[in-house]
Amino acid sequence: MDRKTYREAFDQIPFSADFQERTANLLHQCARELEKENKIVNFSKTKKLAVTAAAAVALLIVSVSAALVWLTPAQVAERFGNTLLSEAFEGPDAIVIDETVETGDFAVTLMGLVSGEDLDTLNPDPGSAHTYAVLSLRRLDGEPLETQTFGFSDYTMTPLVAGCSPAAVNNWTLGAFASGFAENGVYYCMLDTESIEKFADRTVYMAFYEGLAPNNTIFTVNGDGTIAFCDDFDGVHALFELPLDPAKADPAAVEAFLEENPMGWTNDRTPTEDGNYVTTEQETEDGLIVTLQPAGGEDRNG
Questions:
Q1: Each residue of 117-140: pLDDT tens digit?
Q2: How far apart are CA 292 and CA 270, in angstroms?
Q3: Which of 12, 33, 60, 249 is the most exposed place for a label (fewest CB within 10 A)?
């Protein structure tokens, strides 16, 4: 059932006179509890400063029925206290996707994305363009997901680009961080990354999967440069193609990016800790920092 049909059916249900007030009070209470429970995963490369940010949490109640179904990307941004980004998700430059893949025990929905400058008050690099994407996750058996118990750091949501090595274009090379929380049994992930619009004249993906850095035990690159999950990868996984505007591509910026991140690729399985990489995790007061180092011991970006 889609959201529109669900909401229309919901609006036909009679409620007691104080239902909205009681529901609002309950949601405010939940918001206060979740304020301390939201999870953030930051991505970095060895010898490169990790992007860290602590998300402030706020609650926007548009209507009782909206609060009891799914949040929109704008509402997810508002939950992190980001009014500018929330407005951008409702603006003309936002891309609505709402595509769902059922995988393992989950239904994974890429809800939408938006790109632009100065949309995030937490952005440590003002004036630089970023892309923000929102994804939701729910269990197929109807069991609710909870912020406190869902293993957010066990999964990765990352852009990938056809014709580019998955080792060269991903969360770590794009300086990304991801934030997540659960509401009404649905888990929401918001990814903040360096703008991916420069790749818009290529096939650009958003991948969600169980695991850390992209490697050749998870992904394979076809002869034409397209990217797919390995046939024998049995973790939760979904791959979405993004409908970016090719007119926003910047080939010169892509060339410079790939010169800075010249990691190659082989589909032959690499016998290292994590495929092509060695990864380490560090808990900080701002969340979990996942550090990526190319196999061989040296950071190729110095």
A1: 989 766 666 678 999 999 999 999
A2: 16
A3: 12
Write out the residue range of the structural domain in which residue 51 sits.
Answer: 18-294
* Residue 4 resides in a domain: no
Detail the DSSP E strand segments found in the chain.
39-45, 95-103, 106-117, 129-139, 155-161, 177-183, 186-194, 204-210, 219-221, 227-229, 237-241, 277-284, 287-294
The residue ranking higher by pLDDT, 23 or 191, is 191
Q: 136 phi and psi, to 5 degrees? A: -120, 155
Report the number of distinct structural domains present in the chain. 1
What's the angle, vertex CA 206, arms to CA 236 and CA 208, rounded to 5?
15
Do 134 and 73 contact (CB within 8 A), yes or no? yes
Is residue 9 in some structural domain? no
The amino acid present at 294, given as its one-letter code, is: P
For residue 31, report the phi and psi dihedrals to the nearest 5 degrees: -65, -40
Q: What percentage of residues in the chain have a pLDDT greater than 90? A: 57
